[in-house]
Every structure is written in C-alpha cells, then in structure tokens.
Amino acid sequence: MLGGLHQVHQEDVSYSRQFLRKYWRESHGEIDETNSPNTCLDVGAGIGRVSKNVLINVFPRLVVDFLEPNQDFCKRAMKDLPRVNLRNLFCTVAQNFSVTVDQERQPQANVDEHVLLHVATKKHQWVLAEPYDLIWIQWAILYVEDSALIHMLSEFGSIGSRHLVIKCNTTRGDVEHLDEEDGSIIRSEKQVRMILHQSGWKVLHHTKESYRGFEDLFPVHTFGCVREA
User: Fold this and answer.
1) Cα 122 from Cα 42, distance rounded (Å)
2) How confident is the model at residue 34 (pLDDT cuts 50, 70, 90)?
3) Residue 58 has what pLDDT?
4) Which pick of 81, 84, 97, 143 has the fewest CB atoms within 10 Å?
5) At what angle do helices 189-198 and 146-158 cross, to 10 degrees?
6) How far apart are CA 215 and CA 226, in angstroms?
7) Statement: residue 114 has pLDDT above 80
8) What pairs with residue 205 in β-bridges?
9) Which residues of 66-85 are buried (b: 16+ CB within 10 A; e: fewer)?
10) How does DSSP assign 13-45, residue by residue?
11) How much of the chain, in percent, has pLDDT values that exceed 90?
C-alpha cells in the first residue's frame, strides 16, 4: 500500500520492475522460462499491488504466498489476482510468522480450489515443502523491531531461501526516525545494511529512488540480497 501517495504508483512499479530484472540477471543470468523463480513470499502484501504489477509481471509463472495482517486485504487479493499465481495467504503480523521446510511434504498445488487463507493471532509455524525462491518485502519493515526483523530474515535464510529484496524508506543521516503516532521506524541506510548482515544476507544490487514531486520525502532504497556463504 502507498499510504495515500497514489501518485507515485506508476514510478514505483517501473522502478521495481527494472530493479527486479537487473537483480535477477546479476544473480542468475538472463531471465527465461527455465531461469526464473517458481515461488515467492510477498511480505506486507496489502491487496497485492506489488505481486500483480511487479512480481507476476516480471515472472508470469510465479506462484506467490502473501504475508499480510489485514484479512480484508487478503480477501480482496483473492478476487483481484489471477488464482493460478496465488497459493497461501498468511493473515498475521510478521512477528507471528514462522516457517520451516519438510522436504518429504508433498508440494502444494496452486489451482483455484487450493488457494488457502490462513489466519493466526499468535505465533505460529507453517510447514512448507520447499523454501521460497524469492522473498519480497516492501515498506513492511517499518513496523518490525530490530530483533524480530533479524530473527525473521535469518529464518528465511535458514530454510534455504537464497534471494531477498527489501524496499523501504530510510533517513538521510545515520539516526533512525520514530513516528510517535503510529510507532513506525524509519532506519538509516547504514542500519538496514547492518540488519541484513546480522541476519546473514549480502547486498548484491542496490538503488536509491526519487519520485517526481516528492523529493522532500524520506529516500526510498531497494536492496537485492543473496544469502551469505
């Protein structure tokens, strides 16, 4: 979601598509049917704006799981997005989300009747048959404290996921900004990089974006990461 700044939608989508294509080529080579991710977790997915306009646009065969705390948003996404591209919608906050991989588990189909909505109001661990090929987190780390964020990002790596993209606002200096009204945290670029390093991720590709007419807003940075050896 864009927090009311709908004017930046087209630029945001364009930036993200360009970034994702370049990042995947740098880490995997030229994109084609045999060299594309199969599964993705969209963290803070909202109504599916990024999944629909970026992830599925760049990788049409991609199967996406949502992590989104608003159940109404999840239900709307189930109506608006192609069912063939949806699998699980985990309706819970990031702090309650945990996953593990059981390789003996039968891979889940992604046909219409198998799109599942899961709701959890407390910590819960879901079992997957395979790790995500890609994890996309856009404007969602604002509401996750450092320790919980490091734990979540570390867990993604520990289950075998190897590609992570974080898109977020940052402060212009080295000090974080705390919004006392909604409790959100805008970290510095240095802080974001430190959290990625502490959770075992290496930044492979990075961009800083500027939106026309909104130059006075906090800068938007996108970090394309791979799992550190």
Assistant:
1) 20
2) confident
3) 96
4) 84
5) 40
6) 30
7) no
8) 224
9) bbbbeeebbeebbeebeeeb
10) HHHHHHHHHHHHHHHH-S--TTSS-SEEEEET-
11) 74
Residues near 219 by Cβ (< 8 Å), separated by ≥ 6? 169, 170, 172, 189, 208, 209, 210
Instruction: Kindly indicate the confidence band of residue 91, based on its pLDDT and cuts at 50, 70 and 90.
Output: very high
C-alpha distances (whole Å) from 154 to each of 18, 47, 90, 115 are 27, 26, 19, 27
Single pTM value for the model: 0.92
Query: Which residue type occupies 202?
Result: K
Angle in degrees, CA 191, 196, 200, rounded to 5: 145
Counted residue by residue, the chain has a size of 229
Q: Give the integer Cα–Cα distance in Å for 14 and 169.
A: 17
Q: What is the DSSP letter of 200?
A: T
Please report the pLDDT score of residue 224 as a whole number. Answer: 98
**What CA–CA distance (Å, rounded) separates 142 from 39?**
24
- The helix/strand/coil state of 150 is helix
Of the candidate ranges 8-17, 27-36, 142-151, 161-170, the one whose mean pLDDT is the lowest? 27-36
